[in-house]
Design goal:
The complex is a heterodimer of chains A (113) and B (118).
Chain A: E1 4-7, E2 10-13, E3 19-25, E4 31-38, E5 42-51, E6 54-57, E7 64-67, E8 73-78, E9 87-94, E10 103-104, E11 108-112
Parallel strand pairs in A: 2-11
Antiparallel strand pairs in A: 1-3, 3-8, 4-5, 4-9, 5-6, 7-8, 9-10, 9-11
Chain B: E1 4-6, E2 10-14, E3 19-21, E4 23-25, E5 31-38, E6 44-50, E7 56-58, E8 64-68, E9 73-78, E10 87-95, E11 107-108, E12 112-117
Parallel strand pairs in B: 2-12
Antiparallel strand pairs in B: 1-4, 3-9, 5-6, 5-10, 7-8, 8-9, 10-11, 10-12
Classes of the chains: A mainly beta (113), B mainly beta (118).
Chain lengths: 113, 118
C-alpha cells in the first residue's frame, strides 16, 4: 500500500550514541516533515524539506540533522543522543498545494538512557 | 506563524453521549483546517478537512466540524460516541496562500484526549 514508512519502529540508545531514522514515501510527494511528539506538547516540527536536496529548520531543530538526497527519502540524524530526545518521532509528507493534508508514518519510539 | 488552541486537553464522556472538541486558530486570513485522530500507538490519520464551500464538514466515523470564520473556530462534534472513539484528536491549520515556504505547512494544536466510558 502507498504511504509513509518509518524505520525503525522502536530503539533504545545510550546517551552519546548516534543513530539515523529513515522515512520513505512512495507517493512522489515534494514536501516531507519530521515531528516529535511529547505528552502534553502535541507535535513539534523538527526539520522539513520542500524538495530533493533542500532542508530547513522547524521549531525544535537543535541536536538533529537531516538530509534529503533522494525525493522519496528523508533522514533524521541524532549525532549525540541525550535523554531529552526521548520521544516519539513522526515523519509526514504531502503533495504540492496547500489544500493537502499530511500523510503520516506510524512513528518511531526512541528512548535514550 | 499560525497558532492553534485546543481548549480542552482531556474530555471524558460516556458512551452514546454527544461530544464537542473545541479548536481555535489565530489567523484571520484564509486558511485550510484539518482534524486528525491518533489511536494508541499509531500514527495520525485524517478525520476531515475544510477547504472551502459549506462551513459544515463531514468526516469519517460520524464526526463533523463547523468552520466559523468570525470566531476563528473549527469545533469537532459527534452526536453519539462509541468506546472505539477513544483516541487523541489534533486540530491543524495551514495557510491558503503562499507566504514563503510556509505554504501548506500544518500548525498543530496540543491535542485533546477523548476517553469514552461504558
Amino acid at each position: 500500500n502507498a504511504g509513509v514508512t518509518q524505520t525503525p519502529k522502536f530503539r533504545v540508545l545510550k546517551t552519546g550514541q548516534s543513530m539515523t531514522l529513515l522515512c520513505a514515501q512512495d507517493m512522489n510527494h515534494e514536501y516531507m516533515y519530521w515531528y516529535r511528539q511529547d505528552p502534553g506538547m502535541g507535535l513539534r516540527l523538527i526539520h522539513y524539506s520542500v524538495g530533493e536536496g533542500t532542508t530547513a529548520k522547524g521549531e525544535v531543530p537543535d541536536g538533529y540533522n537531516v538530509s534529503r538526497l533522494k525525493k522519496q527519502n528523508f533522514l533524521l540524524g541524532l549525532e549525540s543522543a541525550a535523554p531529552s530526545q526521548t520521544s516519539v518521532y513522526f515523519c509526514a509528507s504531502r503533495g504540492v498545494g496547500g489544500s493537502y493534508g499530511y500523510t503520516f508514518g506510524s512513528g518511531t519510539r526512541l528512548t535514550v538512557v | 506563524a499560525q497558532s492553534v488552541t485546543q481548549l480542552d486537553s482531556q474530555v471524558p464522556v460516556f458512551e452514546e453521549a454527544p461530544v464537542e472538541l473545541r479548536c481555535n486558530y489565530s489567523s484571520s486570513v484564509s486558511v485550510y483546517l484539518f482534524w486528525y485522530v491518533q489511536y494508541p500507538n499509531q500514527g495520525l490519520q485524517l478525520l476531515l478537512k475544510y477547504l472551502s464551500g459549506s462551513t459544515l464538514v463531514k468526516g469519517i466515523n460520524g464526526f463533523e466540524a463547523e468552520f466559523n470564520k468570525s470566531q476563528t473556530s473549527f469545533h469537532l462534534r459527534k452526536p453519539s460516541v462509541h468506546i472505539s472513539d477513544t483516541a487523541e484528536y489534533f486540530c491543524a491549520v495551514s495557510d491558503r496562500f503562499d507566504r514563503g515556504s510556509t505554504l501548506g505547512r500544518l500548525y498543530f494544536g496540543r491535542g485533546t484526549q477523548l476517553t469514552v466510558w461504558p
